[in-house]
Design goal:
single chain, mainly beta, two-stranded antiparallel sheet, 1 helix, 6 strands
Amino acid sequence: ARDILDAISFYLNLRSSPFTKILDNVPLRNREISSSVLSVCCHARPSFLGAQHHNLTTQEDGQLIMFSEHEHQVDKSLISLVKSDKAGLHVKDFHGRWVLVDADLGPQDAIVYPG
């Protein structure tokens, strides 16, 4: 977790990690409640047999997209960890371009997104 937070600090061009002061190495006591929040979600890939149940469109290059430009899937969080079962996950960057982010992932790899 500290390595991920350090990477976020580096990505944001911060001189030092602002997270260092809020982290400690003391584990929680028995039955003590943490202030951290973990949210888990799963976005299933559409199947061709059930395609009528999904919003599927075909682009000129033949790629299928599950959500249109008007149906944004937005996740607002500090850190997002993404693991896909096969390559094909595209993310829109700050300039509005779609970027393939999981082409070179191995079976034990995941993607970390700050923000």
